[in-house]
What we know:
Largest sheet: 6 strands, parallel
Shape: globular
Structural class: alpha/beta
Order of helices and strands: EHEHEHEHHHHHHEHEHHH
Helix content: 40-55%
Number of strands: 6
Low-confidence stretches: 238-245
Strand order of the largest sheet: 2-1-3-4-5-6
Distance between the termini: 16 Å
Number of helices: 13
Mean pLDDT: 94
Amino acid sequence: MSTLLTIPGIMSDVRTWSAVVKNLNLGGVTLHNADLQRDATIEEMAARALSDTQGDLIVLAHSMGGRVGIEMARQAPERIRAIVLANTNTDGLGPDEAAHRGARIAQANEDMAAYARNWVPKVISSRSLEEADLVAQIVAMVEDCPPKVHEQQNRALLVRPDALDGLQYLASPVLLVTGSDDHMSTEASNNDVARRVQDAEVRIVEGAGHLLPFEEPQQLASVILDWLSDKGMGRDLRHSRVRGM
């Protein structure tokens, strides 16, 4: 049976996918959440996720986690049965990116709580911003990220592998899903990725931003379930066993 592997994004943890997984109603599925807070490179994060699991994987990856998922496919393509890339960007290093990430690192090292309160409104939709409980939930998760982990993850992104090159290893079905208000992972950029992959579909969730798994977990779960059913994998997940999280 396949393991359902969830991969969070930067400054994130198991909370990223918890509501989505709950809404999938998969019953006795084997779940594993990747830990991206222990390694210094995307390659090492991918290797750890592979070594911490066994057998075939159905991957749910968000943002930076999508880059880890693509790298997993490069390292062990035979293990990826299907992959969902939510709010994933595949761009190379921008000309001013090192300076921008350096500034973010300095701000977070000075005051992580203030950094969290400033960052969250920039990455969710205006509709989500009106939901105080949702905003507080996301801010709390970011505040819980140690500044040294935030720095390590940003430095990992500065030396990230070429995600566009990595797309050639995605031989299994790929679902590219993003929010209509996500300015970092747009419908156009996802369509460009889909053209480079053997079996890919693009779905857009209206009214959501870059933190789609938090903003619209029910809609995202529905999109994923429909896609898995179309690929003949929904039933297999429902009949597998829980081994751990």
